[in-house]
Design a protein that fits this description.
It contains 2 helices and 18 strands. The protein is mainly beta. The protein has a 15-stranded antiparallel beta sheet that branches. Strands 1-10-9 form a 3-stranded mixed beta sheet, covered by helices on one side. Strand 14 (233-245) and strand 15 (248-257) form a beta hairpin.
């Protein structure tokens, strides 16, 4: 087990150097995807006409050395002109996986359109992504092997995305696509070979609703997130129960991702500040005790 943990970064780098172009895997995933919805969809803003700030810290595969750690923080607000139909947002992502680090700086814009008894946001996203490999962290028998870099290798590229969100009453649905410009990141050269990474487009679908119960203090919120880069896909089906009295809100829920995991979550809001915790039990691969704290 310990040997496997140490080899993760080396195997990833071997995959990087064995080919001229590496196809990057799918984007980061957060258990609290509802709270950071505009990370996935630039149109998921201006729901309540207020300034919103949200962040999430995801610690995956706990117990493994150099396990993935992902952090996102973002803010969005309506612009006070044009009847508050315009909204803007900004977000920052930092993700580490072994000796790899992925950073993104995102800028969002959305415009609200009234449609029937509901409204639709149309959003666009632009930003910069940075990929880094810390070659100085490699531990090999032959430290002078020219096939491996001894320092940090870093590359950047522009990033574009778009999305739509439709809301009607207590129901909503959204669709978005990221990396539409197929970002191409160049790290440098090893043994005369270019180290390059091609970022694949990622598609997202979301939908959910709020269901009131006979007790006016209680409600249920089912929702779904579908994430795919056309090779990999993941589906999260989530149900939360809410208790709300005046400005106090408590919730608990469960999320099921077929073939991947089962997640339990709990949280609460006081004075418009929401704090939540979730633990994701992997049902395959690394096992339930090496799950994800979010």
């Amino acid at each position: 087990m310990n040997t496997m943990k140490r080899c993760v970064s080396l195997v990833l780098f071997l995959c990087l150097t064995m080919s001229v172009n590496l196809q990057a895997q799918s984007d980061a995933h957060f258990t609290h995807f509802l709270e950071v919805e505009n990370f996935y969809n630039p149109a998921a803003m201006n729901r309540n006409g207020r300034t919103n700030v949200a962040g999430s810290l995801s610690m995956q595969m706990t117990g493994y050395t150099h396990a993935p750690v992902t952090m996102f923080i973002g803010a969005n607000m309506p612009i006070p002109f044009g009847k508050y139909r315009n909204s803007v947002g900004i977000g920052m992502l930092n993700e580490t996986l072994g000796l790899f680090t992925n950073r993104r700086l995102l800028f969002d814009y959305a415009y609200k359109i009234g449609i029937g008894k509901g409204w639709m946001n149309v959003g666009v996203q632009g930003g910069v992504m940075s990929e880094e490999f810390k070659g100085g962290g490699l531990h090999m028998e032959n430290q002078s092997d020219p096939a491996f870099p001894t320092g940090n290798e870093r590359g950047t590229a522009g990033d574009l995305g778009t999305g739509v969100l439709y809301v009607r009453g207590n129901w909503w649905a959204g669709a978005s696509a990221q990396h539409l410009n197929l970002p191409h990141v160049e790290f440098g050269k090893t043994q005369g070979k270019n180290i390059e990474m091609d970022i694949k487009p990622t598609l997202y679908l979301t939908s959910g609703c709020n269901i009131g119960l006979r007790n006016p203090l209680l409600s249920v919120q089912p929702c779904i997130l579908v994430q795919s880069d056309l090779n990999f896909y993941r589906v999260d089906i989530s149900v939360r129960g809410y208790y709300q009295f005046d400005s106090t809100l408590l919730y608990a829920g469960v999320t099921y991702s077929p073939g991947t995991s089962v997640t339990t979550m709990i949280g609460g809001k006081v004075m418009d500040v929401l704090i939540g915790y979730a633990y994701e039990f992997y049902t395959a691969g690394v096992g339930a005790l090496n799950g994800n704290h979010d």
